[in-house]
Amino acid sequence: MLTGPERRRRWSLEDRAQILAEAFAPGAVVCDVARRFDVATGLIYTWRRQALAQEAGPAFVPAKLVDVASNGGAAEPAMCVDFPSGVKVRIGAAAPCDLAAAIMRALK
Predict the structure, then answer these.
(1) Within the chain, where are the H helices?
(2) Cα–Cα distance for residue pair 87/80, rounded to 1 Å
(3) Strand, helix or coil at 78?
(4) Which of 5, 33, 66, 87 could link 83 by a cystine bridge, Cβ 3.0 to 4.6 Å?
(5) End-to-end distance of the chain based on CA atoms, in angstroms?
(6) What pLDDT, in 10s, does the model give residues 38-80?
(7) How far apart are CA 59 and CA 101, in angstroms?
């Protein structure tokens, strides 16, 4: 039976945001910020990963497939994907399917 105070600290979202802002400010050293707030550096990186995952979230990207036969076999890409950031990816018809899939996984 444990009768002492709880050892695990609970950090509010505001406290986490402040620590993350200080830890990842230009020129800051994460280890120094962690010592100042008495937090493990691994916890700071975990908080950052969680914050980035919440911001990114899943998103759908419009994809346009080009029928190679309809344009006479020209050197047009077989697939063209426009990302919201403005990046366009064109994958040629001769590209293996597993290569195209790997490219799309890497860019998502």
Answers:
(1) 13-23, 30-37, 41-56, 97-107
(2) 10
(3) coil
(4) 87
(5) 48
(6) 999 999 999 999 888 877 666 666 777 766 565 555 566 678 8
(7) 17
